[in-house]
Amino acid sequence: MRLRLTALTALAAGALLALGAATATATAAGPAHAAPVDALAVDAYGTAAEDGTVTLTGSYRCADDSAGPVFVSSTLVQANRSTGIGGTRAVCDGLVHRWTNSAVVKDPGYRTGSAHVEATLMQLTATGPLGLPMPAFLAQTGQDVTLR
């Protein structure tokens, strides 16, 4: 009986060691597939055309749009003037995509030179009163730019 007890103890100890090693390996390696992080960037240059058309660009990444549509919005600030410049519908598949927002801005138009862009990756979700869409902000960034 003593031999049998020793064999069972050794077997149990081996199983515990194997389980501990597997747990340590899984913990050290981290999750097999980490979810992509929502991210947003603005390019360092934009354009201000003679006809008043302003174009801003950048890149974004979002993981999930199942709760509602996602948009990239941008606001251009130059001197003491601020104007929303378009909005682009985002594709949320975890990959990096480009965005381009344009608007015609007149009286007075924006000039070439230094400016600032505030951009937002925003999702409309039906969580408001009576199921009305409400904004959920996934990512925001600011970038000094040069309008050409």
Secondary structure blueprint with pairings:
Elements: H1 2-29, E1 39-42, E2 45-48, E3 53-61, E4 70-78, E5 81-89, E6 96-104, E7 113-125, E8 134-147
Parallel strand pairs: 2-8
Antiparallel strand pairs: 1-3, 2-3, 3-6, 4-5, 4-7, 7-8
List the keywords.
single chain, 148 residues, alpha+beta, Immunoglobulin-like, eight-stranded mixed beta sheet, 1 helix
Q: How would you describe the overall organization of this protein?
A:
This protein has 148 residues and is α+β, with helices and mostly antiparallel strands. It folds into 2 domains: 1-33; 39-147, Immunoglobulin-like. The protein is 19% helix and 48% strand. The chain has 1 helix and 8 strands. The chain has one helix at 2-29, and strands at 39-42, 45-48, 53-61, 70-78, 81-89, 96-104, 113-125, 134-147. Strands 1, 2, 3, 4, 5, 6, 7 and 8 form an 8-stranded mixed sheet that branches. The chain is globular, with a radius of gyration of 26 Å. The N and C termini lie far apart (89 Å). The relative contact order is 0.22. Residues 1-32 have low confidence and may be disordered.
Write a short abstract of this structure.
With 148 residues, this protein is α+β, with helices and mostly antiparallel strands. The protein has one helix at 2-29, and strands spanning 39-42, 45-48, 53-61, 70-78, 81-89, 96-104, 113-125, 134-147.
